[in-house]
């Protein structure tokens, strides 16, 4: 499928834009997708618009005040040439490298909005909370010891050893 914007190259990205009740799909090539800036309206992007463009309640409305150092104002991505001023104005980065270049700005913004740069929240569905699983296995192991169930003791010990080993290695 050809790019719906330029019509020259093959489309690699699908963009869905809502205008009221109307949904428009665009299929863009890499070049057009890189330069694409969604029309941030008051429909599906209402929250993002308020954060970035600074309604009276806009949390990011005065971001430039956070970064009054000359260095912060003159950062430029070497790949896509997005400037820190553009990033602060739109809230959009131009390419994956921008995340490295603008890391100080992003980090300070996240700290300001979240009061922390660390996530301390719920565990994703399907993920194992190692501490909870370890406590559960220790409880079952103690019950197996109390009951003299030596087969179950061996199974639980192996499971616990594997879990603790993974925890030390940084895995789940």
Description of the structure:
This protein is mostly helical and 172 residues long. Helices cover 48% and strands 8% of the residues. The protein is built from nine helices and two strands; from the N terminus they run E-E-H-H-H-H-H-H-H-H-H. The chain has helices at 30-35, 46-53, 63-66, 70-73, 84-90, 98-101, 103-114, 130-147, 150-169; strands at residues 13-19, 22-28. A two-stranded antiparallel ribbon has the order 1-2. Strand 1 (13-19) and strand 2 form a beta hairpin. Helix 8 runs antiparallel to helix 9 (150-169). The longest helix has 20 residues, at 150-169. The relative contact order is 0.07. The model is unreliable at 40-50 and 52-59 (pLDDT under 50).
Overview features:
172 residues; elongated; 8% strand; two-stranded antiparallel ribbon; mainly alpha; 9 helices
Q: Report strand %.
A: 5-15%
How would you sum up the global shape?
elongated
Q: What structural class results from the helix and strand content?
A: mainly alpha
The helix/strand order is: EEHHHHHHHHH
- Average per-residue pLDDT, rounded, comes to 75
C-alpha end-to-end distance: 41 Å
Rounded radius of gyration (Å): 25 Å
Identify low-pLDDT runs: 40-50, 52-59
Helix content: 40-55%
Main sheet summary: 2 strands, antiparallel
Spatial order of strands in the largest sheet: 1-2
Query: What is the count of β-strands?
Result: 2
Task: Give the topology, please.
Blueprint: E1 13-19, E2 22-28, H1 30-35, H2 46-53, H3 63-66, H4 70-73, H5 84-90, H6 98-101, H7 103-114, H8 130-147, H9 150-169
Antiparallel strand pairs: 1-2
């Amino acid at each position: 499928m050809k790019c719906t914007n330029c019509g020259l190259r093959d489309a690699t990205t699908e963009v869905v834009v809502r205008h009221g009740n109307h949904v428009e799909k665009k299929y863009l090539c890499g070049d057009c997708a890189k330069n694409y800036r969604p029309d941030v309206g008051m429909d599906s992007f209402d929250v993002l618009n308020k954060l970035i463009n600074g309604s009276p309640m806009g949390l990011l409305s005065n971001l430039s005040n956070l970064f009054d150092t000359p260095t912060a104002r003159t950062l430029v991505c070497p790949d896509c040439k997005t400037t820190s001023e553009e990033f602060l104005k739109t809230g959009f980065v131009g390419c994956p490298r921008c995340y490295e270049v603008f890391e100080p700005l992003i980090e300070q913004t996240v700290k300001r909005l979240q009061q922390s740069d660390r996530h301390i929240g719920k565990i994703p569905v399907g993920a194992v909370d190692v501490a909870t699983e370890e406590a559960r296995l220790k409880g079952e192991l103690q019950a197996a010891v109390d009951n003299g169930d030596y087969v179950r003791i061996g199974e639980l010990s192996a499971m616990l050893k594997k879990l603790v080993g993974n925890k030390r290695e940084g895995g789940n």
